[in-house]
Amino acid sequence: MAPEVTAMDNRLMMLKKRFAERTTAQLAELAPKLADWQNGVCHPDDLQDLYHLLHRLAGSSGTFGFHQLGEEASELEQLIKEVIHTVEPAQLLTACQIEPTVLARLSQLSQLLLAAEAHTPTAINWELVEHTGEKTQLLVLDASLAALGEALMTYGFNVRHCESLPQHCTQCWHPASIIITPAALLNQVVAWNQQQAQTQHKAPAPVLCIGQDDSFQARYALAAQGADGLFMQPVEVPKLAKRIEQLKAEQQQHHASKVLLLDDDQELTEHYRLVLTQAGKNVKVMAEPEGLLAVLAEFRPDIVLLDVHMPPYSGVTLARMIRLEPEWLSLPIIYLSSEQDRDLQINALAQGADEFITKPISDEQLIRTVRTLCYRARQLAKLVSCDGLTGLLNHSHIKQALTHEYARVQRLGHHTSIAILDLDHFKQVNDRHGHGVGDVVIKALAQVLQKRLRTTDHLGRYGGEEFVIILPDCKLAQSELLFKDVCHHFSQLSFIGSDGTFHATVSVGLAELNNFSGEEQALNAADDALYQQKQAGRNGVTCYQHPRLGRDANLAQDETD
């Protein structure tokens, strides 16, 4: 076990100890009140305090291993809620309305706490929830897919080809694999995949099928067997490469996920923060919601986890308040509460939230749930911000990213490069081979950019065959080397046209954002550099040196050459 995991488990045990100490003190404070209530004296405020205590214990006890305490607190919470809602406060001052049996059960809560002290919470299988940090490997099975494997290598993927059936390829599988197999072998591959995953205590690898039967029955059978994707022969390689990138993102996306957690239970929120942080999330905790809007604007979370009961505030009202701002209408808000009443849950969801997770929830369930919700949130956001053909940022969002990066450069003073890319002779590709083939070329360039550039770079399709790339913390000389590599690898790709295979090239213009008084000036400079590269013979990179000179007229002529 890794040292950092052992340290994490120790910290979680310390939180359990803090929870037990706090609960012991609160139950000790409750004891004299129970004696008063048995004698018929009951103040409404004391009853509200009892309800909030039981609500906290119902939601958090199970997380720290006190399962019986949590279950008993949940039942008692409902009984006390009924008293609060059905009995007038004036009646409570004259005669306690709590049944003697309920008072007796309340007095035994401290015993349930002591009885579970020695219990150790179920350890998290960190191997199942931690990112492996390994480079994704494409495991291409069967001799019939050898050519496909070679084609995928030109996109920069780490490809391993295994000609034998998987049960005879025991060293091929690892946790960051994506398996590509003929559809006919899927049953055997799925069984082997699951066996390897169980042996190594990992999640099974995604499986993509290559097939020839496009019927409903064939697709249904593959889905039932566990396929994650199906591509018909002959395979459109850019389309397959895009799906591989999506699967890679699913495997690795939890590292960039941002989670905002609002809950007034200190030990529980710290427990959740530690667990989610260890699983790769960037977690910000708020116990007091007064600064919520400012935190949203600065932190910009992927999802918000929100308790329903945070006296004196209501989580339901906070969700409605967040939705008052148009900017946050699409922000996923998830209630994380011990509230068991289904009608109340549905009513709470109707006020502006998206899902309801009932506490207690195990650590592994929390990690998997949050991971899924974050991924779903990012996918939905991409539908709004990304170009449908390439999956890169669309025109308006790459311009927005450029504005934000320029402000960041002005504030921090680091070097940022900006690139404009334009496919060479692209009009001829469309005229000769058709717009469908042209779209394949555009998608292929997008795939090469995603593979060859850094995850911190902003990639956008500016329009047609033109792309804009923002490279934060990257000097011009470094950017030039990166794009020379892009040009080289893109030129090696083969495309199937109307009269056989052909190759395409791309020209790049570069400028450094720091050297200009605004982002538009930098963009124009990169455009001038692109023009210079077109004049110099295309298929290469030029850094900005000269002002714009008749670029528009010359480019119009360039497209006809």
TrEMBL record:
Response regulatory domain residues: 258-374
GO cellular component terms attached to this protein's record: plasma membrane
Modified-residue entries (Phosphohistidine), positions: 55
Gene3D superfamilies from the UniProt entry: 3.30.70.270, 3.40.50.2300, HPT domain
Record-listed E.C. numbers: 2.7.7.65
Keyword set, alphabetical order: Phosphoprotein, Two-component regulatory system
Domain called GGDEF: residue spans: 414-546
Location of 4-aspartylphosphate modifications: 307
SMART domains tied to this protein: GGDEF, REC
Cofactor: Mg(2+)
GO biological process assignments: cell adhesion involved in single-species biofilm formation; negative regulation of bacterial-type flagellum-dependent cell motility; phosphorelay signal transduction system
Domain HPt: residue ranges: 8-116
GO molecular function list: diguanylate cyclase activity; protein kinase activity
InterPro entries: CheY-like_superfamily, Diguanylate_Cyclase, GGDEF_dom, HPT_dom_sf, Nucleotide_cyclase, Rev_trsase/Diguanyl_cyclase, Sig_transdc_His_kin_Hpt_dom, Sig_transdc_resp-reg_receiver
CDD domains named among the record's database cross-references: GGDEF, REC
Catalyses which reaction(s): 2 GTP = 3',3'-c-di-GMP + 2 diphosphate
Protein name: diguanylate cyclase
Species assigned in the record: Oceanisphaera profunda
Lineage start: Bacteria, Pseudomonadati, Pseudomonadota, Gammaproteobacteria, Aeromonadales
